[in-house]
Amino acid sequence: MATAPETLAERLRGRFGDALGACKVALGEVTIEVPPARLVEVCTALRDEEPFRFEQLMDLCGVDYLTYGEADWDTDEATATGFSRGRAREHEGPVWKGPRFAVVYHLLSVTHNHRLRVRTFPEDTEFPVVDTVTGIWPSANWYEREAFDLFGIVFEGHPDLRRILTDYGFVGHPFRKDFPLSGHVEVRYDPERGRVVYEPVSIEPRNNVPRVIRHDARYEADPSSATGE
To answer: In 3D, which of 147, 145, 68 has the Cα closest to residue 100?
Structure first.
């Protein structure tokens, strides 16, 4: 017997066909991929058509896959000597072969008690652009501004696309994987000038070594102490 997510996935495949780049069921959740050119069309149908009725946009976020699959620390398993230290990258070139940026939409159908994840990949990596969905779900307004601010994804047709979290004059997009963790500038109050000043950041970028806590016989309590022997 098909589960509710599997039934929803079959309805989506039957309705949208080649408009879906992918339609997957994993961990009890349905995810579809939609080309940017068909995004507004598909989202409008998802909101309005009776088999779907996704009335609410619960969340919208950007994703940067630049370093997807890479890691500075290999901590998947412990060994007799503890977790491994920083490991050399064994591959050449990026692990992720798809487009760098994505926009992910989390939808809720109050009518049918269904949830759906929609993902679209802007085609241009240098200047990622997708159409706004504020005309479909007004709640997308601030979500899209956040994705624009943090990832630099432009939402065509947005009524007021401007930064929402970073300061005026901020340079760059801090959630991009190539943005330095320490940033580009630091802020301090200068008592001589009587104002806040911006200066080049003085912190050296680095990867810290994780602390490894090992549990072995050296740290076990003496069983005899518990019995008083």
So the answer is: 68
